[in-house]
Every structure is written in C-alpha cells, then in structure tokens.
Amino acid sequence: MPPPGGNRRLRHLQALPALWHLSFHTVPNLPELLATGHERQYLKQFYDRLAMNPAAYTEADLDFYAGQYAAPGAMRAGFNVYRAFEEDKVDNLRWSAEKGKVRVRAMLLSGEGTFEALGSEEAAREVDEDVRVGKVEGSGHWIAEENPEGFVREVLGFIES
C-alpha cells in the first residue's frame, strides 16, 4: 500500500537513508538484475534491518520466502508495488478530491520500532474521517510475525470497539 499523504510524505520517506529501497525499487530493471539469484540475501537484510525482533524469522522462514521470490517474475512483481506508488498517489488524491474522505472506520497499526509510524497518523487522517491508531510493542515492520499476540490484541480491540 502506498503511503497516504501525497507527494510530500512519499518524498520524505524516500529521503530517509534507512528507507533507501523506496526509491531503489522504482528504478527500471536494476533491482531485478542485482537481486536475481541473491533473493535470500536480499530479503534477509530487510528482515535484519527493519525488524525489531529479527529472531522472529527462522532459517526455514527465510528459505521459504527466498524460494517464493526466486520464482520467475516474483521479484519484479514485488518491485512493481513500489513502482506503482506514484500512480497510486495520483489516483488516491483524485479520488479524495472527488469524493472526500473515506467514511469507513480505519485502523493504522504500526510496530513500535518502525519508520512507517513517522507522520503516518497525520497522513491517514488526511484521507479518512475515523482513524484509530495502534502500536504493537516489541515489533518493527513485520508486526504480525514479530509479536503475534500483540498484533491480535490490537486488531481484536479495533474490531470490538
């Protein structure tokens, strides 16, 4: 999902050195060239760097994900998510201008140690009328894997509220 908040927020995130991949993954063909055949190493550096609890990922997990991303076209599909951010941003801003804010209750859930929390609440409130903000302690980017109990607790609390 592209970060909400339009061009200003996306450019801010892309400028953070720890989030270098937001820009790198948009370069045509280069990420595929460099990552193909090195899927496990490429993915592992994200798990090690963006997780607050990297022990949540076992060697078997890494092997599984690397195998999935080694399939023909899989890395390109992953990189294309980032390549679509600019078009998504335009579409989202156009939709918001035409229809106003989303009127469905939404949850913004971040890990305690993630960069995504930077400005996320403000950006979410730009596009949604009713945002509940939650934070999963002891997790970084991959909240469900790093703290499954905390993740479930936050989601159930949102559903039940």
Describe this entry's structure for a reader.
This protein is mainly α and 161 residues long. Helix content is 58%, strand content 7%. The protein has helices at 6-15, 21-24, 30-35, 39-50, 59-69, 74-83, 85-99, 120-127, 143-146, 148-160, and strands at 106-111, 131-136. A two-stranded parallel sheet has the order 1-2. Helix 4 crosses helix 5 (59-69). The longest helix is centred in the middle third of the chain and has 15 residues, at 85-99. The protein is globular, with a radius of gyration of 17 Å.
Largest sheet: 2 strands, parallel
Low-confidence parts: none
Shape: globular
**Which H/E pattern describes the elements?**
HHHHHHHEHEHH
Please report the total strand number as a whole number.
2
Percent of residues in β-strands = 5-15%
Major β-sheet strand ordering = 1-2
Give the distance, in angstroms, between the N- and C-terminal Cα atoms: 25 Å
Write down the Rg: 17 Å
> How many DSSP helices?
10
Structural class: mainly alpha
Mean pLDDT: 89
> What is the helix fraction of residues, given as a range?
55-70%
